[in-house]
Each structure stands twice: as C-alpha cells, then as structure tokens.
Amino acid sequence: HHYVAIMAGGIGSRFWPMSRTNYPKQFLDILNTGKTLIQSTYDRFAAFIPKENIFVVTSNEYINIVKHQLPELPLQNILGEPSRKNTAPCIAYISFKLQQLDPQASLIVAPSDHLILDPVAFNKVCLEALSFVNKHNAFITLGIKPTYPNTGYGYIQYEQHAVTDNVYKVKTFTEKPELELAKTFLASGEFLWNAGIFVWQVKNIISAFEKYLPEMYDVFVAEKDKFNTTEEIAALNNIYPLCTNISIDHGIMEKAQNVYLIPSSFGWSDLGTWNSAYENLEKDYLGNAVAGDQVMVFDAHNNMVHAKNDRLVLLQGLEGYIVVDTKDVLLICKKDKEQEIKEYVAEVKRNK
Ligand code: GDD
Ligand code: MG
After folding, report:
1. Mutation test of ligand 1: which of 26, 40, 153 has the most ligand atoms closer than 8 Å to its C-beta?
2. Does any ligand 1 atom lie closer than 6 A to the CB of residue 196?
3. Atom number of ligand 1 nearest to Cα 10
4. What is residue 15's predicted lDDT score, i.e. its pLDDT?
5. What is the pLDDT of residue 18?
6. Which tens digits make up the pLDDT trace of 218-274?
7. What is the pLDDT of residue 272?
8. Cβ(174) to ligand 1 under 6 A?
9. Rounded Cα–Cα distance for residues 330 and 324 (Å)
10. Whose CA is nearest to atom 14 of ligand 1?
C-alpha cells in the first residue's frame, strides 16, 4: 500500500533564464548528469516502489513534458492541475484520489527538483518513515543539517530523545523564517531544514486538511466522488478556482501536532538557485563551474557558467559571476546578487 506523489508544478523562477514558465527546472538537466531532475527523482523511487504506485502531479501545461520524460510511467498516473495553487491543493488532490483507490494507502510526497547524491541512504530513510507512519498516526518530515541561515526553507525544531531508532518528535515547524529568526534557529543547534519530503497515511493527511484547511477540505469532499471516473477533470475545474493558494508547509505542517522527524543525510540539495548548482558542480582549478562544451575561460575565477547553445562563450577576467546563455536570453549576474533574479524576471515580464 505504498505510494509516491512527485510534485512537479512549480516554475523554478530563480533558475531563470534556463528555467522558464513553459519549461521549468524540474524538466532540465541542471547538473549535466544526463538525466533531468524529475527523471532522477522518478528513478530514485522506482528502485523501491512499483511504478503503478508512483504519481506525478503537475500543471496541465506540463503533462506532455512529463509523458515524454517519463515514458515508463502509466499515463493515468500523470495528474494535471488546471491552475497553480501551490502544494496544499496538489497534495489534497492526490490524497482524495488515492483514498478512493486504496483506503489503506500510505504516501511519500516529494518535490521533483532536488538533488540527492546517495539514493541508497534515501531509500532506507523512506522505508523507515513508511514503517513508522504505518504503526502511528504520524506525519514524518525529513530533516537536513543546516549550513547557513537560508530563508527559503522550513526549519524544524525537535526533541532530543528519539521515539524509536531514528525518529524524533517535532516541537515546532517554521516555514521560511525572516533572516534574523533563521540565524537564531541555526545558532541554537536545535533545528534542521525541512527537506520538503513528507510521509504519512493518506487518511491522516485528509483529517489534517479537515482540521487545518477546512474550506479546502469541503471543496474537495463535494467533488471527490467524481475522482477516478470520466468526470475527474470536470471536478478539478470546479475545485481549483475555489482553492486558496497555500503551501502544505504553511497550511498544515506549521500547525499539525503529530509531526515527527528523521534526521537525514543523503547528500540533499534543494538546487534552488544558480549558487546551489555551482556548489554541486565540479570546478576547474580557478574555481569556475562550467556546464557546456563550448566555453573558454581565461584568467577568470569562481564563476558559474551555463552555456549549452551551439555558440562559443569566452570569458576573460570575470570573477564571481553567473553567466547563463540561452537561445534568447543572456544573463550575467553577480553570484552574490542572485536572489534578485526573481525581481528581474518580474521586470522582464512587465516589459513584455
Ligand atoms: N503540482 C504542483 N502544483 N506542484 C507544485 C506546485 C503546484 O501548484 N507548486 C510547487 N510545486 C512543486 C515544485 O515543483 C517543487 O517540486 C515542490 O512542489 C516544492 O515547491 P517549491 O515551490 O519548490 O517549495 P519551496 O522550495 O519554496 O519550499 C519547500 O521546499 C523546501 C526544501 O526545498 C518547503 O517544503 C520548505 O519547507 C522546504 O525547506
Ligand atoms: Mg523548492
């Protein structure tokens, strides 16, 4: 009764200009591995979950990309959402659908766009988590040792004594804190980053929707009998306009009581930004990370260069920059200013 839902509806705007709304980063091979991020995610799960039990929830506009990139996945396991409402509605959708197919279902929910260097360790943690949630009415989060006060993550504080082997009771869950708070969390040593991967029984997460997001719950309950019938798409078209745009982290995880944590070290990286790609790519002796065959670098240091267009890119003297060359956009941005890329993208869209 084990299922996986891979969430693949985000737009990855911080990886602009490679990641675009019509072709976001989960569908790209950011690290030059020969596989896109969603392909690696799928392979990690297919190693221990039958493919009939792996679902991808994505925006309707990406369904064809998913079909193309995951040809093994049964077509009925690719679920399209009519609009982008963040992760809470996405998780409600797969949960109500699964509850009908298999009331005993337990579910791993995972992002489609992370790097995990040690799939064997990952597999082990997932199985531990599944076994725990099958015995307890618990929500499992996977915690990663934080290295700096990143404000784009959830922070989880947990009790020091393990409940069983490797499972700890969560005290607090704070999604995307302000910088000052993130610094305090880091300094206390009591917090781990939320990896964004959750494990629970479907019936329990549905109860949590009823308790913490009751309006969304009601909207789904009203239409759920149409799931797994020819009316499923019509049902979604009724449901989505009525859903608030909210993440599972803000909507449920910050409030839920029975949350547990497994501290995990499987070489996790969010790969959220060009700097995280830089950290994970091999560097030349001058500290340049270069993705692309046609790049020449002279007397340049610590740059992140991504250029996979059939044209030569030559750098001289540049230091600490992100250089991304795509067919229609060339980005040259200081590495320590990359958080501003989101704003520039908004500006570009306004000027269109
Ligand atoms: N189907 C669907 N629909 N998927 C979505 C949607 C949506 O509307 N919005 C986002 N996703 C997908 C993204 O593609 C990604 O794979 C995953 O859901 C998580 O969404 P993000 O938007 O990337 O979340 P985040 O990175 O800001 O924060 C989450 O992940 C962090 C770790 O990377 C949170 O769980 C944080 O607490 C966590 O630390
Ligand atoms: Mg993310």
Report:
1. 153
2. yes
3. 14
4. 87
5. 86
6. 999 999 999 999 999 999 999 999 999 999 999 999 999 999 999 999 999 988 889
7. 83
8. no
9. 6
10. 10
Question: Which pair of tokens denotes residue 232?
Answer: 């499923």
Q: How confident is the model at residue 320 (pLDDT cuts 50, 70, 90)?
A: very high
Buried residues in 197-206 as b, exposed as e (16+ CB within 10 A): bbbbbbebbb
Q: Is 90 helix (H, G, I), strand (E, B) or coil?
A: helix
- 115 Cβ closer than 6 Å to some ligand 1 atom: no
Mean pLDDT score of the chain: 95
Looking at this protein, which amino acid is placed at residue 295? V
pTM over 0.80: yes
Distance set, CA 201 to CA 4, 24, 112 (Å) = 11, 30, 21
Q: Which amino acid belongs to residue 213?
A: L
Ligand nearest, relative to CA of residue 251:
1
Q: What are phi and psi of 49, to 5 degrees?
A: -125, 130
Number of helical H runs and strand E runs in the chain: 11, 17
User: Within a 10 A sphere around the Cβ of 16, how many other Cβ atoms?
Assistant: 23
